[in-house]
Amino acid sequence: MIDHAHDLACVQDATERLLSAVAELDNASLAEPSRLPGWTRGHVLAHLARNADALVNVLEGRPMYVSAEARDADIERDAPRPLGEQLADLRESAARFQAAGDAPADWSRTVELRNGVTDSAAQVPFRRWAEVELHHVDLGIGYELEDLPAEFTDREIDFLAQRFTGHKEVPSISLTGGNGRIWTTGGGAEGGPVEVEGAAADLLGWLAGRRDGSGLSTKGTLPELPPL
Fold first, then answer.
1. Residue 60, SS3?
2. Residue 34, Cβ neighbours under 10 Å: how many?
3. How far apart are CA 141 and CA 88, in angstroms?
4. Which of 133, 139, 140, 138 is nearest to 157 (CA)?
5. What is the per-residue pLDDT across 168-209, written as a single tens digit (0 to 9) for each?
6. What is the pTM of this model?
């Protein structure tokens, strides 16, 4: 069972790590490229703040975003802001998400995210946790996949392996982590089974599109995964 209260606490911890790290930056560094193509660090921070508000919308029964165009426009609008404004927005939007998560609710209910995707409300805090952790890495400021909490890494691999299960572009894949855990995914495309083994951080990096898989050992051809 998903423990949403536990995940909300993990979101809070991850947000505090992010805020502490970002507070060490300056305005010039926010304008530098992040690890996400076409995005500066300011874009990443703007996205994180707007994502918190979008997930408040989800929890309160509103559309996650007005439209894809509005989402993109908000990020472009907020990306150039100076450090002080970015930090304040991150803190305030995180507090709004925490308040929405603390409100009494039926956590078993189904909620709608982007592009018609649905999930249980109880999964929303974990989705926010993933946003904070992975985009902290994307900033390229010294926080790496190896620094992620082990619980988060295992659960995000679980989530992504499930997401690619049966995908029409992904052959059958067996994933083995350095801790001996085994995941299976894919199976919707011809080929395979492909056996992939490596450190949990490298597995997560490949599944999440953050690493090219060169750090993994494979039997068979490592497929190119479709974008998330």
1. coil
2. 21
3. 19
4. 133
5. 999 999 999 988 899 999 999 998 899 999 999 999 999 999
6. 0.96
